[in-house]
Amino acid sequence: MSFYGKLRAIQQKSNSLLCVGLDPDINKLPPHLRRNDDAVVEFCASIVEATKDLVCAYKLNLAFFEILGARGWSAAHRVLSLIPDHVITIGDAKRGDIGNTAEMYARLLLEDFKFSATTVNAYMGEDSVRPFIKDANAGAFVLALTSNSGARDFQYLKLRGKPLYEHVIGRVTKWNEKKNLGLVVGATRPAQLKRVRQLVPDMPLLIPGVGAQGGDLKLAVRYGCDKRGEMALINASRSIIYASSAGNFADAARAAALAMRDEINTYRQRFF
Amino acid sequence: MSFYGKLRAIQQKSNSLLCVGLDPDINKLPPHLRRNDDAVVEFCASIVEATKDLVCAYKLNLAFFEILGARGWSAAHRVLSLIPDHVITIGDAKRGDIGNTAEMYARLLLEDFKFSATTVNAYMGEDSVRPFIKDANAGAFVLALTSNSGARDFQYLKLRGKPLYEHVIGRVTKWNEKKNLGLVVGATRPAQLKRVRQLVPDMPLLIPGVGAQGGDLKLAVRYGCDKRGEMALINASRSIIYASSAGNFADAARAAALAMRDEINTYRQRFF
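Output (structure tokens, whole complex):
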């Protein structure tokens, strides 16, 4: 199934725009798990088991797996194997390199790990993005306007009257022949998010920055969705996976995910 | 020793500006090695052994190690352990992410692998770069103007009369309180390289794009060096490590590295 099709299908099936970010920081795991050699896998497995009917996607932050060394690679594989096939999996690696190197990263993420989609940094331009979108079934979310404070350094700079991130969006739109590209746009920039949705009415938007980073959830949903009230992926990581560090952390994560899914749904609007 | 000091010391000791890029593509390794489970380590070990007195640095392209899965992590460690301490090691990972994630990547590259330096993508701004330059002894080369065709998509866009990459350079100069930042500037852009060196007279420049990518070596050296004829790292990967695929590939790599080091030295000029 095409990437866009798969995304719509799971958002309808689970009635959810929620993407849970798996950033398993070993120092933040529930203390009772940390004694275990496989703490990260056990933690993520519990979170996935508790939330898998409530989400449209999981986003694995590769940094938190790579830091585990050789074990991190198999940990990511094992976590991925627990996620149902119809749920989108995003390899959040933000890679960007010259063509032949980007090929390697794309092979690792799409063929080895078999993520449904990746995140990509397009500073190096077209040949750094192409390997991630060769397969129409694999999606790629290109960094446009990010949720962090550093976004101000370059992304807002105006070039020929338009901020840099709009130039990125222009190129991404051009590269999107296979309809498998999306954008990363932070929830911390609602006015810009609204404008981005006008520029790309059909493209999936991965929206981090609600929860721990303080973005406004209502505006993120209202401005981020397409006309059917879909195609936005609202990402929350820390506010869900670390909802509790007690023995019941998985129940707490489920409660947080359920509350967030339902709150998101109260903000969704359909204009057709 | 400070990163700049360490770089000057090895460039003087080895009388070399050559950085050999280790991009061990399993499909390009000499056929007689490929049968071996540890082909990548064996290949890189032979290249390092044959060239370690001729270089100022090795640049490990992480993509080519990560693609090996769990074994890639230990392969990179084993290759690093063979490189003499006074030689610079660059973890070419081009990471760039929000602060807490960048912390993880920096820990992996600088504390776990103990690279002397990294390459960093600054699209996400200051907080994505900071973790890589916390330690004054660790260097970071920020992507400014890259050697690939896609560089044209964004890096040349003009803002307030200056191309984007000059804005990047302006910020990098500001962030450089610890004197451990450098820039990546492709050899395929000699006129721009000349201008960059004027903007940052003292900063190390990592210069890929000679060899397989076709950049002009003479201009790369002439424009890339500082006034002492130092602080440029001229990177060559494929033209050296794949100089031959026969049984004598290591000898061929040594001959190619020696020829390139010497050619580079004929172009070096000192203005003081």
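The beta strands of chain B are 18-22, 57-61, 88-95, 117-120, 139-145, 158-159, 162-163, 181-185, 205-207, 232-236.
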